Amino acid sequence: MNNVNTNALIQVRELTKFFPIYRGAIFRRKLGDLRALDGVSFDISRGETLGLVGESGCGKTTTGRTILQLEHPTSGKVFFEGRDITGIGKYEARRLRKHMQIIYQDPFGSLNPRMTVRDIVGEPLLIHELTKGRGEYRDRIDSLLKMVGLNPAMAARYPHEFSGGERQRIGIARALAVNPGFIICDEPVSALDVSIQAQIINLLEEIQEKFGLAYLFIAHDLAVVRHISNRIAVMYLGEIVEIADRKDLYREPMHPYTKALLAAIPIPDPEMEYSREHSMIKGEVPSLFDTPPGCKFHTRCPIMQKICRESRPVLKNMHGNEHMVACHLVI
Amino acid sequence: MLLQVRNLSTYFLADNGVVKAVDDISYDLEEGETLSIVGESGCGKTVSALSLLRLIPDPPGKIVNGKIIFEGRDLLTLSEDEICDIRGNRMAMIFQEPMTSLNPVLTIGHQVMEPLMLHKGMNRKEALKECIELLKGMQIPDARTMVGAYPHQFSGGMRQRVMVSMGLSCNPRLIIADEPTTALDVTIQAELLDLMKKLTRDHFTALIIITHNLGIVARYADKVIVMYAGRIVEKALTRELYRSPLHPYTIGLMESVPRLDQDIKQKLRPIEGQPPDLAYLPSGCSFHPRCRRAMERCRRESPTLREVSDNHEAACWIYE
Question: Which residues on A lie below 8 Å from B40 (Cβ)?
Answer without folding.
Answer: 193-195
